[in-house]
Amino acid sequence: MARKGLIQREKKRQKLEQKYRLIRRSLKNELRKVTSLSEKWEIYRKLQSPPRNSAPTRLHRRCFETGRPRANYRDFGLSGHRLCEMVHTCLLPGATRSSW
């Protein structure tokens, strides 16, 4: 289980990203339309003004059950370890264990 503080920090980042998403998107659209270099620099400065944690690249996908930050499967929202355990106990319908 991940430390609760790390999980809360990730949730805070998600809220910040949601809050500033439209602002970032509109500034990037303006940046594509502008041709003069001085105006582009001004828009870049505006893009740097929101908090760092509001950037989408700072988000990290975590396991839904354990909060583990690595080896996550997007389709299930689980880490590989929990996914393997759930498949072995037949809790995921349609998922089969590999055998060769």
UniProtKB/TrEMBL annotation:
User: GO CC terms on record?
Assistant: chloroplast; small ribosomal subunit
Key words, A-Z: Chloroplast, Plastid, Ribonucleoprotein, Ribosomal protein, RNA-binding, rRNA-binding
* Signal peptide boundaries: none
One Pfam family, short name: Ribosomal_S14
Q: Which GO terms describe its biological process?
A: translation
Does the entry feature the keyword rRNA-binding, yes or no? Answer: yes
Cellular location(s):
Plastid, Chloroplast
Q: Which GO terms describe its molecular function?
A: rRNA binding; structural constituent of ribosome
- Highest rank taxon of the organism: Eukaryota
| SUPFAM superfamilies assigned | Glucocorticoid receptor-like (DNA-binding domain) (SSF57716)
Transmembrane segment boundaries: none
Family label: Belongs to the universal ribosomal protein uS14 family.
Q: How does it assemble?
A: Part of the 30S ribosomal subunit.
- Function noted in UniProt: Binds 16S rRNA, required for the assembly of 30S particles.
Q: State the name under which the record lists this protein.
A: Small ribosomal subunit protein uS14c
Organism annotation = Exacum affine
